[in-house]
Amino acid sequence: MMLSKFIDYLKNEKRYADCTVTAYQTDLFQFNQYVLDNFNESLLDVKTVYIRSYMMFLSENGISNKTINRKISSLRSFYKYMIKQGELMENPVALTKAPKISKRLPTFIEEDKIESLLNSELIFDDSFSATRDKLIIELLFGTGIRLSELLKLKEENIDFYSQTIKVLGKGNKERIIPMPRSLVDLLKKYIKFKNELLFKIKNTNLVLTKEGKNAYPKLIYRIVLKHLSLITSIQKKSPHVLRHSYATSLLNRGADLNAVKELLGHSSLASTQVYTHNNIEKLKLIYKQAHPKA
After folding, report:
1. Per the domain annotation, does 95 fall within a domain?
2. Where residue 277 falls among pLDDT bands split at 50, 70, 90?
3. What is the overall mean pLDDT for the chain?
4. Same domain flag for 257 and 221
5. What confidence tens digit (pLDDT) does each residue in 237-258 have?
6. Residues sharing a CB contact under 8 Å with residue 150, sequence separation 6 or more, in sequence order
7. What is the pLDDT of residue 25?
8. Using CA atoms, how far apart are residues 169 and 279, in angstroms rounded to an integer?
9. Could you give phi then psi for residue 286, rounded to 5 degrees?
10. Residues with active-site annotation
11. Do 11 and 49 belong to one domain?
């Protein structure tokens, strides 16, 4: 009952993306089972020592520190909610220190490679599926939106006059993002194509399957993986890599860090600053190649 109320809270009040809610749900169910199996206690009787024991159990079973941190974050949010509801007086996670994780630079793809992909007529023909797939790549790289934001986009969110899109991001926050001219032209072509197909069910969502149903995360992942595999050998080929590539490209061209923060929909500048490291690494490479003292 407690878990279901918290999940409803995440869905209806916090308006978290479905994938985020699923992650919270999985983390909490797994912890609940661990507490029952090892301490025969309910979630409201959890002590700090139980959480430390759980962290050790996860680590001994090969779970990465990054994943452990996410699971602990899920527990922290759950117990904060329980205190807010008057079910608890103290948060058992409050004194728990998250394990250290090594900071990795965001993976990105050079813009010339992505441009060569998007300009290839051999890869993208004039079919509905090919036009939609190209639009997905162009949207992710051309605006830096998240996968969850892409799936929620509707035709009414597109302003062709001002060449912008309205995006509903994390925490139900809206932001306006300018679009490149190439994306504007592609959107017009795609929407015309979509309307001409006259799907049996009228769907205002922008990105659809070839049957006219809402696109879903696995479909977007497959499309991105398929096309990025043609231009790069990097291990991670996900929609988020195109978001990283968007941010890196902006900063490499001299964009203001605060402006990039707003475009990405980050709540704090710290989340955006990670992209400056890629910029610094590029400058180091240029220095080593060009300076006689390097």
Report:
1. no
2. low
3. 87
4. yes
5. 999 999 999 998 898 888 888 8
6. 136, 139, 140, 207, 215, 220, 239
7. 92
8. 26
9. -60, -40
10. 146, 170, 240, 243, 266, 275
11. yes
Which residue range(s) make up the domain with 47?
A: 2-84
**Residue 174 structure tokens:** 């809206």
Q: Into how many domains does the chain fold? A: 2
Indicate which CATH number applies to the domain containing 39.
1.10.150.130
Q: In terms of domains, do 72 and 118 share one?
A: no
What is the DSSP track for the chain?
-HHHHHHHHHHHTS---HHHHHHHHHHHHHHHHHHHHHH---GGG--HHHHHHHHHHHHHTT--HHHHHHHHHHHHHHHHHHHHTTS-SS-TTTTPPPPP----PPP---HHHHHHHHT-TTTS-SSHHHHHHHHHHHHHHHH---HHHHHH-BGGGEETTTTEEEEE-GGG-EEEEE--HHHHHHHHHHHHHHHHH--SS---BSSB-TTSSBP-HHHHHHHHHHHHTTT---S--SHHHHHHHHHHHHHHTT--HHHHHHHHT-SSHHHHHHHHHHHHHHHHHHHHHH-TT-
Structural domain includes residue 97: no
